[in-house]
Amino acid sequence: MRHGFLLHAVTTAGLFLGSNLVSDASAATSDHALAVSIDDFIYIDTSNEPTDQTAAHEQRLRAFMTALRDDVTADRRFELVPSSCASNCPTDGPALRDRLRAASQAGTQILIIGIVHKMSTLVQIARTAAINATSQRVVFRKYFQFRGDNDEAWLRAERFVSEEVRSRLLESRSQQ
User: Can you give the residue range of the structural domain that contains 34?
Assistant: First the structure.
């Protein structure tokens, strides 16, 4: 199961890609935009709810990803590099190391990957990792817990994840 591998990679990214949490290769200086690529996150539902919500979850995840990319695009401190991955990449695409290599060749400095996991009727967790595409080291990884499974809850979660990811990227960049 490919998304099981990705889940393991995101949750143990420090071990999988190197133990440094702050990248040594955010080579851009503070006056240049940081080149970021965002792979589509995957969605896992282990809530065991009786109603099949697959279509609603797919729609909300697409909206989440679009909004996340739009937020990065709107922030002049970042340059969004199109993902080298097709929409099925997290589950059926190339291995993470190959994706990082392709992202680096496309000019990406940081690749963001993630998983949204619905654990129960009320609790979802978004697991994200930002990885330096050249050194293949984790810049940071973070878990975001959010409540609810409706459009409003997903919108609030995306806004918070977006702000936190951009803030953490800038923070790690300033530590260079």
Answer: 2-174
- For residue 127, give the amino acid letter: R
**CATH code, 123:** 3.40.50.10070
Task: Please provide residue 84's backbone torsions phi and psi, each rounded to the nearest 5 degrees.
Answer: -80, 0
Tokens representing 96? Answer: 């993470």
pTM for the full predicted model: 0.81
Contact present, 66 and 139 (Cβ < 8 Å): no
Q: In a 10 Å sphere around its CB, with 0-12 CB exposed, 13-18 middle and 19+ buried, how is residue 119 labelled? A: middle
What is the token pair recorded at 24?
């040594």
Residue that has been written with the tokens 């990884």 in this structure: 141
Tell me the per-residue pLDDT of 122-137, one tens digit each, with 9 for 90 and over: 999 999 999 999 999 9
Predicted confidence (pLDDT) per residue in 152-166, tens digit = 999 999 999 999 999
Radius of gyration of the chain (CA): 16
